[in-house]
Design goal:
This protein is 76% helix and 0% strand. It is mainly alpha-helical and 185 residues long. The chain is elongated, with a radius of gyration of 24 Å.
Length: 185
């Protein structure tokens, strides 16, 4: 049955293509949600998935023994991961007015210099966190939002935000501690 639909879709039969689209909606939706759950424009990803489906139909070789739905899911997954990599050009967290004031009001004392150095290190460490952890930490500490406000803004559950913040804090502690021991040597 599946091979008949695919061979008709290869011939660009509109009914077969429509049937494939409908049959693969659950796989498409699940794959997009798994790889890019916080996509800014998920409708655009669904459109791209339709184009990937057309390419997958053209390139599919039933002789290889791989079911079409697995082949399509792999193609879609690779596209989504590549798209995610391109979109994550590591935007940096901007310095807040408070941090800029600290930088501007630096006095030549050793304590102020050390505090400034630590603030800059922390800023760099925060920018090295994974994007979701960076977003939660930035919204919590720099924008002073509560965990429930962050959950509403990111469209995720409160518990996910709390777990992400906890994981981010552990990452920050571990990275900061390792930098301190390396720098003190």
């Amino acid at each position: 049955m599946e091979s008949q639909i695919i061979s008709r879709a290869k011939a660009r039969d509109p009914e077969a293509l429509a049937q494939l689209l409908v049959d693969l909606v659950p796989i498409t939706r699940a794959t997009i949600r798994r790889i890019q759950p916080y996509a800014q424009d998920p409708d655009n990803l669904y459109g791209e998935a339709n184009l990937i489906l057309l390419d997958a139909v053209d390139d599919f070789d039933p002789e290889r023994g791989v079911p079409f739905h697995l082949y399509y899911r792999a193609r879609l997954s690779y596209f989504l991961m590549d798209d995610l990599k391109r979109s994550m050009k590591k935007p940096t967290v901007p310095l807040t007015a408070e941090m800029e004031a600290v930088v501007a009001d630096v006095v030549d004392t050793e304590e102020d210099f050390i505090l400034l150095e630590r603030a800059e290190e922390l800023h760099q460490i925060v920018n090295d966190l994974p994007i979701r952890e960076r977003a939660v930490v930035s919204l919590y500490f720099f924008c002073h939002l509560s965990l429930s406000e962050i959950a509403a803004r990111l469209g995720i559950s409160y518990q996910t935000v709390a777990n992400t913040k906890s994981r981010a804090m552990n990452h920050l502690r571990r990275i900061y501690a390792s930098k301190q021991t390396v720098d003190s040597l």
